[in-house]
Fold:
Amino acid sequence: MESLLTNQIIAYLIAAYILSHVPIIGRYLTMINTLIHENGHALAALLLNGKVYSIKLFINTSGEAITGQRGWFSSVVISYAGYTFSSLAAYGCFMLLNMGNSLFILYAFLAIAIINLLLWIRNLYGVIWLMSFIALCGWAVYSGSSGFQTFLSFFLSSVLLTESVSSAIQIFMLSILKSKSAGDATSLAHYTKIPAFLWGFVFFFQSLYVAILAIRDHV
Structure:
């Protein structure tokens, strides 16, 4: 049974990675990680008594969280939180899968998507994507089909895990080749004076480490 579950997880991860790099559908799937990433920034801002003004999701799979924060420490934590939250969320999904709570994953994705739609998302593409994602997860829950619910939970979790690593690798490479255009790594370099490529390595290393833990501990 354990071997069967391991094989299923590997198959889901491979399928998620391949489909995430297919034109059109890949951009749609990758947006799941973008949503969670930007919510990491938003959550950090709220926990540090800051504000979240808006979140934007773009068709090129990038995102933007506009937050208000107080002081240097808050700026560093908020900048650091995006990639970290994606990895931790992916780990949490696999923990729930291991516990047999796959339906809870769909409820969690639904809650996050609805909160973002109501409170933060302010650009047209972001609204359209969120509405379609809510419809997908909502239909899976409403259908009552345990088979489809399990499939979708495993697949979305696999997409989030593979993309949390893939996006971290991309930012690491970008921090080496174009350190002034490396997103959160560039922001952290500005705040801390630590080179962007070191922050890029931190993002890459932690994403890979968490992914290994998720696969090792929950299959």
Notes: The mean pLDDT is 92.
